[in-house]
Amino acid sequence: MRWLIVGISGWIWAQATSPVSLPEIEQELAQIGPILLDHPDMGLKDSLNKHFISLWMKAFSAPEAFSYPFDSVKTVSDLCPPDSAFRIFTWQIVDFEERQHYYYGILVRRWRKDKKSPWLVRAYLLQEIPEVLQEDDIEQRTLDPSQWVGALYYHPRYSKHGVLRYETHVKVPRGQKMVKEKLVYYVLLGWNGYDKRRNFKVVETVFFDSRQPEKVFLGAPVLYAGPVPKMRIILPYSETTPLTLNKGWFVPRYGSRRRIEAIIFDHVSTGRRSQKTVMEDPRPFFGADGTYDALVFLRRAFWEGRKGILVYRRNVIPYAPEIEDYDPKVIWRQREEALEKARRYGLSH
């Protein structure tokens, strides 16, 4: 069997000279995955990771691979939006000695010219931007797969799909006219362990141009935290401070029964350091301050030629649906069962 890996204009595909066996590829991916995650030898992991990437590209040389589950590959995040416009696979490699995290990904795009045409599939290798937190304008730039804000994307809570999908309308220049077109954009939630002092979480947006469906754009100007839209939101925080970012609801005021669906996250503040700590590390401390912010989708909002945007809300009151199921009698019964078990084993009087 012979394989030729070809790269043109930022995208990569594999051309096969013999049939692709997806179960065999899946088995090999499943065997390599835990080594990339847990092995202490970075040299070995770097070498295996190149083969790991080539296996994914080999798999997606076959269009039917887009629908193949890859269920046994447990160390790779596999997400897909409701309309199956793409699948995105992400994984990490950790340098345990230096406590550095490195991220890799493959985005598989699927589209067709019309309802009667066959599906077209292309796989793009995502290449992480080094020192992404040092890029001052990283939240304002539209990127492509060769410039990726590396992250391990996770499935949002309370969502059937791993990628959030939103529809909007936007005015775009077509020749000498401004034309109103429908735009679908997707939102990914991700985490990056970065280094031994800092982590960050990211709200990433993805969109496609109907006239250039083979191109992938990372960063849509639909996140409004002020008059100038952001393409993505980066939330840096300290290694020792947890930070939440997930789908959920909030209420406009305490006691209200109205629930507003949103992307909810901890508000990040810069804390003070002791003089000794500042001498060791002069960078500011980032962490959650106990309050929450949100991104709310406003379907009818119209701003700068766009209708349907995600708008930032400061200091919201999160709503936890688990409260609805809280039953004090169940908690009391569980407590009594635990005490009885402890008495049975002589652990309580």
In short:
Mean pLDDT is 86; it is low at 1-17 and 273-279. Strands 7, 8, 9, 10, 11, 12, 13, 14, 15, 16 and 17 form an eleven-stranded mixed beta sheet that branches. By secondary structure, the protein is α+β, with helices and mostly antiparallel strands.
Per DSSP, the total helix count is 4
* Helix percentage: 10-25%
**Beta-strand content:** 35-45%
Q: Termini separation (Å)?
A: 70 Å
Q: Please tally the β strands and state the result.
A: 17
Rounded mean pLDDT is 86
Query: What are the segments in which pLDDT stays under 50 over at least 5 consecutive residues?
Result: 1-17, 273-279
Overall SS class: alpha+beta
Biggest sheet, in brief?
11 strands, mixed
Overall body shape: globular
Radius of gyration from the alpha-carbon trace, in angstroms? 23 Å
Strand and helix order: EEHHEEEEEEEEEEEEEHEEH
